[in-house]
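Exercise 7. Given the components listed, write out the predicted structure of the assembled complex. Treat all entries as one system.
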Amino acid sequence: MTQASGQVRAAGAEAAGAAGGTAIRTEDLRKTYHTARGDVPAVRGISLAVPDGEFFGLLGPNGAGKSTTIGMLTTLVRPSGGRAWVAGIDVRADPVGVKRRIGVVTQNNTLDMQLTVTENLEFRSRFFGLGPREAVRRAGQLIDAFGLGDRRTALATDLSGGQARRLLIARALVHRPEVLFLDEPTAGLDPQTRVNLWDILRVLREAGQSILLTTHYLEEAEALCDRIAVVDHGEVLASGTVDELTESAGADSVITVRYEGDVPAGLAAAAGVDDRPGVAKVETEPDQVRVFTRDPGGVLGDLIAAGAKAGLTVRDATQLKPSLETVFLTLTGREYRE
Ligand SMILES: Nc1ncnc2c1ncn2[C@@H]1O[C@H](COP(=O)(O)OP(=O)(O)OP(=O)(O)O)[C@@H](O)[C@H]1O
Ligand SMILES: [Mg+2]
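Answer.
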């Protein structure tokens, strides 16, 4: 363990995961926004169970309903139907009880911009009932743990994007919440800053902190989360570990060849891909053929050769290994767009 990770541990995610219970549970949770332009069914019946100490990811493209789900779990959005419990407490029956037990980092920067790093942490600590000396101590711990030591007197408005995210997460932890909610914590950060933040989140997880994170980055969910729910259009398409997801979706390798010009009906058959062992599915579209298979060897070459025989030039060709990307493709028939 690195020194920094030791500090994060010492700074105390230690309250988390204590009772061996369920950090988050939802049953058929729903939200429809009523707007002037009509009803928007943002969340359409989501059921989840996240045990204490788990790092759980909601993965989905823009507008999938991730923030609305987090909003309901953190009592900021009133559910239209279904139920949800956080740290064992019903979000509708006792929103104040839930608020006391959770830390939340929303998608927008909610720091007090005209306060310093230290003040942001101390004021939040005081808000959660820590005494003055305790608040100073807690702020100091978190500043060290989150690598903000040389920025402690800087105004929040002067922080870099990565520093601001770190301070937002630190601030969400002042009262040692049982469950930490992070809505797209690395959106908009450059790759190096994102990876640095991943390291901090991994340390929190190691310390037993229950975390629900939303992301539209496939590789982020893959890199961090114990289990993932793939969401789209307000529904969970599938959930589990990455391995379970690739297995259960039957997400094999996916080979796609796009041609210049129209694909004749029998092209895939002419290429012999239908009969190959391991092929689960072949989709022919006007300008492309897509093959889902456990045994991708040779498929690409055969498709290109069959195209050439039919007088078609290849525009592009891709081969994806089983991954969250192929899971999404298998479940929705659409390519994942971040
Ligand atoms: N306050 C609101 N009023 C009306 N519609 C809303 C509201 N908030 C969200 N929506 C709509 O609900 C749907 C889900 O939005 P939500 O913000 O939950 O998705 P998201 O997965 O967090 O997306 P993003 O990746 O863009 O953050 C979208 O169609 C969105 O336009
Ligand atoms: Mg969102």
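Discussion: Residues 191-206 form the longest helix (16 residues). Confidence is low (pLDDT under 50) at residues 1-7, 9-19.
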